[in-house]
Each structure stands twice: as structure tokens, then as C-alpha cells.
Amino acid sequence: MKKRLLTGLQASGQLHIGNYFGALKPFVDTYEEYDSFLMVADYHALTSIKDAKTLSGNILEAVRVYLAIGVDPERATLFKQSDVPEHMELGWIFNCLVSVPFLQQAHAYKDKVAKGLEANAGLFTYPMLMAADILLYDAEVVPVGEDQRQHIEYAREAGGKFNRAFETEEFRAPQELILKGVGTVPGVNGEKMSKSYGNTIPLFATKDAIAKAVMSIVTDSSGDTPKNVYAIHSLYRNEDELTKLYEENKGNYKALKESLVEDIEAHIAPMREKYQNISDEEILSVLKNGAEKARTVASKKMETVRKKVGVALY
Ligand code: ADP
Ligand code: TRP
């Protein structure tokens, strides 16, 4: 029996190759080792998005990205949170078990308040909905980025509180899985590649756009090896190949950049093609199938939970 994994997907627009090598690829390389549940966190997104078109579009986009980078919907349960109302139901129960000061310690909430932004009640109780996402499926393993570590602690705490309050062992403690990517991918200016720095090579870029980004990589005139070009190139080729290539084209930055464009293109092209050719209908069908599978697990779990709480009378 494989261990169960669950993670929440969000559409985070403008993905770049830093995201791919840092987070997406390590995930794609790992999910099949587990009984994986991949959930689009659409009701979580509602804490910040108040536009129906944008939210619908983001749901489709999140699924499209994961399918394009190689997630096989036959080998994972891909669904959206809002299709399984049990998430909200269990989230409510957890809300009734944790204290306000406990939720006030959550980073996402604190950051928003610190920035002087108004936090809605949904954002405030976000960690309990996330705890429900995880515990409803008895997920043991939760792959997340470092910034989500605290939320997994909150999930453990919520499950523990339930177990103590109702004298049960209903919920098991989930463990975060912080996947190791290749480290920091540098952008075209040598700084960390980030959508907020405008120094990215977009993940599903056309060849022209790749070429444009690569040609703009900053090269210094000291030495024969353009180190920013080399750093990105090393994501695609091993050291021996690169040593040879950079030796043969010493000082010829243009040729080296052209070679990098070809390597990136060869890697991106199949993903880009998938990304462009996945129809909305296909995505909807994946989500519908996933919802059915997820609901089967979640509704069974909630039946027991309702009994433990004392609301199941018939
Ligand atoms: P951005 O910096 O473009 O806003 P995010 O903060 O949305 O990217 O990051 C999403 C995920 O991609 C995170 O898990 C992060 O670790 C990874 N990531 C982002 N930029 C890089 C990078 N330059 N190198 C490696 N991983 C990255
Ligand atoms: N909060 C997560 C994020 O911002 C998304 C998420 C929602 C999630 N529910 C989850 C992640 C359950 C893991 C498990 O990235």
C-alpha cells in the first residue's frame, strides 16, 4: 500500500523555469510514489479573488499547468476543493476547536495585517480549511514549499485537538514534504529568477520569447565564460558537455546563447505543446472524475467524524 499524499494547487500565473526546476519538476518526479490527491484550492483562492471569471480561469489554469508538466490524471486524483463540501464542513469543526489567539499566530494572516491590509474572516480561518483538506483524506505526506511549513503544524494541531476533545484517534498526524529542487535558478540578470524582478524565462514561452530572454542575459566582459549563460545552461546539460561546448566557443557569447536557446526550446516545446492543446473540456472531465474519487473518500470520513462529534442521529 502506498502512503497517501495530498497537496493544494494554486494558479500562480507567469510561471518561469525557476519555478519549474525549483518546485514543479521535483513534484512531478515524486507524486507517483504515493497515492496522490492533487487539489485545486479554489475556496482558499476566494479569500483574495472576488471575480468569478478570474477564479474560474485560475482553476482551469492550475490543472492545465500540472497536466502540461507531466502529471498523469490516471495516476493521481486531481480535483477541486469546492466539489467536495466536506472540506468546508470539517474546516468548521476545526474552527470550533482552536482559539482565536492560535489563529492570530499564522504567518499568512500576520503578514497581511502587518502590511495594513484588511484580512477577511476566510483568510483568518484559512489554516483550518487547509487542515481539513489534509486530514479528510488521512494524508500522511504533504508536499509544500517552505512557506507552508507552519500550516502543516496547524493541521497536526487541529487533528490533535479533535482527537483529545472526542477521545479518539480519528486523525493521524500529517508530515510536510519539502522537496529539494536544484537550488536557486538565476534570472537573465544573474539575480534569483522571480516574476517580481522581471528577469525570467517563461516556462511555456515560444521559441522567439525564449530567444529574446536568452539574448538579454547579462554577460560581463571579464573572462571567456559568460557565467550567467553557463549557470542557466547547467540546468540542461552536464558539466562535461558544457566544458566542451564552452571551450569550443570561447568568447563567442552569441554562439553560446544560441546553443542555450536550442536546449531550452527542446525541453520546453513538448510541455508548451501540451499546454496549448489541452482543451477546457478535457480539464473539466479530469476534474469531474477526480471529484468523484475524492468525494468517496471524504464522505466516508465525514460520516465517522459526525458520529464522533455527536450530530449524526440517523
Ligand atoms: P516568484 O519568485 O517568481 O514569485 P514564487 O515565489 O511564486 O516565485 O515561487 C513558487 C515556487 O517556485 C516556490 O516553491 C519557489 O521555491 C520556486 N522558485 C521560484 N523561483 C525560483 C528560482 N529562481 N529558483 C528555484 N526555485 C524557484
Ligand atoms: N496554502 C497552500 C499554498 O498557498 C495551498 C493549499 C491549500 C494546500 N490546501 C492545501 C497545500 C493542502 C497543501 C495541502 O500553497
TrEMBL record:
Superkingdom, natural source: Bacteria
EC assignment: 6.1.1.2
Catalytic activity: tRNA(Trp) + L-tryptophan + ATP = L-tryptophyl-tRNA(Trp) + AMP + diphosphate + H(+)
SUPFAM superfamilies named among the record's database cross-references: Nucleotidylyl transferase (SSF52374)
Gene Ontology CC: cytosol
Pfam families: tRNA-synt_1b
Keyword Aminoacyl-tRNA synthetase attributed: yes
CDD domains noted in UniProt: TrpRS_core (cd00806)
Enzyme superclass (EC): ligase
Alphabetic keyword roster: Aminoacyl-tRNA synthetase, ATP-binding, Ligase, Nucleotide-binding, Protein biosynthesis
GO molecular function, one term: ATP binding
Keyword Aminoacyl-tRNA synthetase belongs to the record: yes
GO biological process, one term: tryptophanyl-tRNA aminoacylation
Family: Belongs to the class-I aminoacyl-tRNA synthetase family.
Protein name from the UniProt record: Tryptophan--tRNA ligase
Organism listed in the record: Candidatus Kaiserbacteria bacterium CG10_big_fil_rev_8_21_14_0_10_45_20
Gene that encodes it: trpS
